[in-house]
Write a structure and sequence with these properties.
Length: 331
């Protein structure tokens, strides 16, 4: 994981700001839905007490799937839900009343296409007549759609087998499918059992931006926006805490996800992490306001998802993004 001097200065400023926050403002309670993946800023903030430092009482609630998070967010049983921008945006076209408020990172470098042992791939068009799996409706599903469109392969020429990630690993290992789009740590598990990675999402220009969504009503309240700003500052400060001492974060990751420190470190090093200032930058994949940021990703999602029938109509587009809390946090 590499940080620019500008990012380092931003993180340092967040750390300095933490001290007086609790003394001046009352704590805000937040129910935060997370997935069991090594989200370094989250677990660093938890391990180092940074949420408390920034005046937010975070209750971490574990989920193992996006749809379960969508339901809890809609019901108001969680305030923040962590996951992929693409997945939450597509859910919003189906009625999920949510806003996207913070980008945590880009996991494209730990997302890839693997083939079953003995298979080869010169072009994505070679998958015609073969089978491929990915979690249905996920960013990995969209990666498949995008690659097929770019190679001018009709969707019905490839047998798409929708499987949740653990079952996808088993399917590729057992030769039940010819190819699979996977995330880490499942990517490494598949490779260790004979699968061969032939595409890396980052290397072919794709983005797997993940972050935080909140209920549309909650973020309209002053307390909701303030809570998101505080969480955002704590996540940014967590990056520096990890850089200075990764041990507590790695221990927290193992405790809450089961992922061992060596693999967690590898995933963290290959993930591009975002700070609060990235959210309001003009030329940045993480920008909630700039033309090259999250709005451009949403346009990409709309195009692919509509073409593949994953959504029936376009959603709110850039209006799905709510930069107000990030703007507060960056000041």
């Amino acid at each position: 994981m590499k940080l620019t001097a500008f990012k380092s200065a931003t993180i340092g400023a967040m750390t300095i700001m933490a001290g007086p926050c609790v003394a001046q403002e009352a704590m805000i309670e937040v129910n935060y839905g997370y997935l069991p993946v090594p989200t370094m800023p989250l677990f660093a903030a938890e391990a180092h007490g940074l949420f408390d430092d920034f005046g937010v009482d975070v209750n971490l609630i574990k989920f193992t799937s996006g749809p379960a998070q969508f339901q809890s967010l809609q019901a108001g049983s969680i305030d923040l839900a962590q996951g992929a921008l693409a997945a939450f945006y597509m859910a919003s076209t189906r009625g999920l009343e949510a806003k996207w408020v913070y980008n945590i990172g880009d996991a494209s470098a730990i997302s890839g296409l693997v083939l079953s042992e003995g298979n080869s791939l010169e072009s994505y068009a070679d998958l015609a007549g073969q089978s491929i799996t990915a979690p249905p409706g996920s960013i990995l599903h969209l990666f498949h759609v995008s690659q097929a469109m770019d190679a001018e392969v009709d969707f019905d020429q490839v047998d798409f087998v929708p499987l949740p990630p653990p079952q996808a690993v088993s399917a590729i290992q057992n030769g039940n499918v010819d190819a699979a789009w996977l995330w880490e740590p499942l990517l490494s598990i598949a490779e260790a059992n004979g699968a061969v990675q032939v595409r890396n999402a980052s290397e072919i220009g794709l983005h797997d931006v993940f972050g935080l969504a909140t209920g549309a009503d909650w973020v309209e309240s002053e307390e909701g926006r303030d809570a998101v700003a505080r969480v955002s500052r704590a996540l940014t400060a967590g990056i520096e805490a990890y850089e200075q001492d990764p041990g507590p974060t790695l221990s927290k990751i193992e405790e809450m996800t089961g992922i061992k420190p060596e693999l967690a470190q590898s995933i963290i090093a290959r993930t591009n992490w975002a700070t609060v200032t990235d959210q309001v930058a003009e030329s940045n994949v993480f920008s909630l306001t700039g033309p090259e940021g999250s709005g451009a990703i949403i346009d990409w999602v709309d195009d692919r998802a509509l073409a593949a029938g994953l959504i029936n109509s376009s959603g709110a587009g850039a209006d799905f993004l709510d930069p107000r809390s990030a703007t507060m946090a960056a000041q």
